[in-house]
Amino acid sequence: EILAKVKQDGGKGLILQADASGAFDAEELEDIIDVCQSKIAMRNCRIGVVGRPSDWLIASSQDSLVALNSWGVELIDIPLEELMRNIGEIRSSSLGAPIIEDLQEKAEFFSESSNADLLKSMEILQALRTLVDRYKLSSLTLRCFDLVLKDQSTGCLALSQLADEGIDAGCEGDIPSIIGLSWIRSLTGQIGWMANPSHIIIKKEDDLAEMLVAHCTAPRSILSKYGLRSHFESGIGVAIAGILPKEKVTLFRIGGKHLEELWYSTARVIASPRGEGLCRTQALLSLSNEKAQEMLTNPLGNHLVMVRGNWTRRISVFEQL
Fold first, then answer.
1. How far is CA 147 from the centre of its chain?
2. What percent of the chain is modeled with pLDDT above 70?
3. Is the sign of the CA dihedral 114, 119, 120, 121 positive or negative?
4. Which of 53, 128, 245, 317 could, after both became Cys, cross-link 173 (CB 3.0–4.6 A)?
């Protein structure tokens, strides 16, 4: 009766059943609580947009009003020039940029890039940390390709490290992806990885498709091992070339003109190739033909977010509420 009235008034709700002894499904209740806490967290989320979205993201550059109305997040526009000034100040300072402890010691290899490239990456990391403190940011997205042109460097390593420090960080200024990265951490406590679908192969004989995704900014904490290479497209800077554990993961994408749509699917990592024709961290995934076909016929955009574990039930609860 209560849920019927709630729905009559345009609201949403769920019925949680208990038996005669008062026992109920604790996991179901936990999902509901975490969804509600996530909704609160997103209303307190401040996302820095450092430089406008990349020009090719024609479906992924929604404005601040759309982000506020749909997800409750606040987008803070920060000119790229401010980041460049921060980098310049760090380079002219006698203090220099702090190193990432054990970065090179734990790497399998350090190829193509130089120590000078690594230093530049540390300076970019420190400059982004300055913006996080200055604007009290929860997360940020960076128009990263402009660094290639303006500074002969990239933000790949800096964005990877920020995610591991608790500041979700996306690239190319992609708005749905950085909202997605922020949301999935608030919903699950896990770190997401933003990646490009490279190819999708529908295998009708066993109802399973294969999809290869790749990007240069994988957080090191989600990897079983990693090496350090250059950024794929430019051949400069420092990027993470990681190996992902073979396990279940969840893929999702926020989209739509008003960020009102959501696609998600469970999948399994079956390999971590290191092909030369793609971004440095690569994951070959197995997922249902149906979900893969949806991406080919009704895509919400290019970048996907991947998170370790199967979180589809909790995402379904979020949708219902």
1. 20
2. 100
3. positive
4. 53
Cα distances from 44 to residues 72, 136, 139, 167, in angstroms, run 8, 11, 11, 14
The one-letter amino acid code at 243 reads I
* Token pair for 165: 């420090």
Closest CA to 186 of 312, 42, 69: 42
In our burial notation (b when 16+ CB lie closer than 10 A, e otherwise), range 47-62 reads bbbbbebbeebebbbb
Bridge partners, 227 (sequence order): 241
CA Rg value for the chain: 20
DSSP 37-94: HHHHHHHT-EEEEESPPPTT-TTS---HHHHHHHH--EEEEE-HHHHHHHHHHHHHSS
- Specify the pTM: 0.94
Structure tokens at 144: 């990263």
Pairing relationship of beta strands 248-255 and 208-215 according to DSSP bridges: unpaired
Q: Are 54 and 173 in contact (CB under 8 A)?
A: yes
Q: What sign has the CA pseudo-torsion 129, 305, 226, 80?
A: negative
pLDDT at residue 185, rounded to an integer: 98
State the DSSP code for 222.
Answer: G
Residue 45 DSSP class: -
Which tokens in the block code for residue 30?
């936990």
Residue with tokens 């038996």: 19
pLDDT band with cut points at 50, 70 and 90 for residue 303: very high
- Tell me: the pLDDT tens digits for 115-161? 999 999 999 999 999 999 999 999 999 999 999 989 999 999 999 99
Q: Are the beta carbons of 216 and 237 closer than 8 angstroms?
A: no
Handedness of CA 284, 290, 293, 299 (dihedral sign): negative
